[in-house]
Design goal:
Five copies of one chain form a homopentamer. Chain A is mostly beta strands. Chain A is 11% helix and 51% strand. Chains A and B meet through strand 1, strand 3, strand 6 and strand 8 of A and strand 3, strand 4, strand 5, strand 6 and strand 7 of B.
Amino acid sequence: MNGMDMEQLGQQSFVYGCELKPGKDVVFNPEEDAFEHQLSLRTVSVDPTTKDELQVVEVEGCDANGQTVKTVLASVRPSCLPCVSLAGFEIAPPVVFRLKSGSGPVHLTGQHLVLTDGEQSFEDDDDDDEE
Amino acid sequence: MNGMDMEQLGQQSFVYGCELKPGKDVVFNPEEDAFEHQLSLRTVSVDPTTKDELQVVEVEGCDANGQTVKTVLASVRPSCLPCVSLAGFEIAPPVVFRLKSGSGPVHLTGQHLVLTDGEQSFEDDDDDDEE
Amino acid sequence: MNGMDMEQLGQQSFVYGCELKPGKDVVFNPEEDAFEHQLSLRTVSVDPTTKDELQVVEVEGCDANGQTVKTVLASVRPSCLPCVSLAGFEIAPPVVFRLKSGSGPVHLTGQHLVLTDGEQSFEDDDDDDEE
Amino acid sequence: MNGMDMEQLGQQSFVYGCELKPGKDVVFNPEEDAFEHQLSLRTVSVDPTTKDELQVVEVEGCDANGQTVKTVLASVRPSCLPCVSLAGFEIAPPVVFRLKSGSGPVHLTGQHLVLTDGEQSFEDDDDDDEE
Amino acid sequence: MNGMDMEQLGQQSFVYGCELKPGKDVVFNPEEDAFEHQLSLRTVSVDPTTKDELQVVEVEGCDANGQTVKTVLASVRPSCLPCVSLAGFEIAPPVVFRLKSGSGPVHLTGQHLVLTDGEQSFEDDDDDDEE
């Protein structure tokens, strides 16, 4: 009932959501299993309890040199831009989200994608079974 | 006349729309049939009857651990951001949409995608017919 | 000079645009021919003659049960959100666009995609020629 | 050093940008060569010299009937929406951009995609070389 | 732990981020190695220290004629549009980002994609190993 059969499609999409508040790191780092995990970030939104000040969401991940990089994912503000659509910002774990400025709360929502190692590896598995 | 021939393309896109009001859950959970169903969410919009306050749309779905997760899909406000484009947020049933804050109405629109199980399974079916 | 050779690419993209005014339905329903037609909606915009009130664009199409569905495509307002990017909302004919609220004009722009039936069917045609 | 090797990838992406001012048509119509050309439009932006009035960008292209069509690409306004993201509006030459309203300047930016005729034709060429 | 195995997927995605201030060019031009590098730009955001004036981000890259082109990537302004989503503007090195107007800081964030030369070349490598 979870939507898609991984054996056939090679990718499953789940809902991901977290609430960001000051001083609280939200870590996305699924336990190692047979699958690849990825986030496809979709929206950053305020709610009615969010103070009217700039809310800055920071993402901390890994750059191409293997170094930790911190950068601004998005900035929202209740009175002018209460929501930003990220349109599918794809990011691989380990990654950390935090509220760099503002007293929040801010809500981060996206798709948690679970994919197999090589997308073509299913047939390899099938071959093994047939032997 | 519905646009695309499923047997050939493997995917059909229909219009999906719902109106969100306080205290009303909108469930997307098509009856089980031979096809996979998916939403590709596109826009969240207010209309002229929507009160000028923050309208927060919540989505309730399934996370990667099989647990129910509730998170903010988008926030709109008539006087500053009457519409948010979600750019194709893909979500599999069962899923629930509701207005978490605000008195609405808020309109959620997207594509209802109907796809076959494995996208390559058509030929399998054809093979059966040929036997 | 129209950009792409359909025989080779299987898809051609043209400019689609219409102006929405109160009481005027804009129908997108190309005559039946050998090709599939689709809209990839891109932007909803106001112009300087648009009154400063909420302009609500409605789309009427076909849902997955074969029923007609009307829903809000986007809402724009000259003084706060004069333009919304739809990022490629794909919709198959027959479809109707209308201004549900506001006195307009509102401009809807996108790509009119013309594609062949099955994307692999060109070779079939070639086979016929070779016989 | 231009990023991608066309022989191998079949598509190269370059930066496209133009400045729109009243009474000045900007034509995108590359000279005919062995490649297909396409724009993937990304952003429409104002700068600090842009007067605070609605700036309406018009696009003139070819519709599916081979007729010239003019429609609004996007509307921006320095005090409320200084930038609109078009998220990859794909358009084939010949195409004309102009400022339909407002005194500008407005900046249009995107990717100029150069692709080969049929994306699979490289191997054909390779085959010829091997003979 | 960096998410994806390049040998199998052919593409790896890392976090890219930079801070733009007046008079400071940010160059993206990775050292030549066996891989192709590309940016998929995602967001331009202000932070609470950004002065409330129009902040204009310029990109300098290579056009299809091999000439250097400078154009406006996006414009943001703390009081009305503190963040713009670029939805994956793909750009190949060498490229330079700078703040053309405004006193900043402005934050540019995206994905740094590392891909192999021809995406199909893995099998070639495998063939060599088998010999």
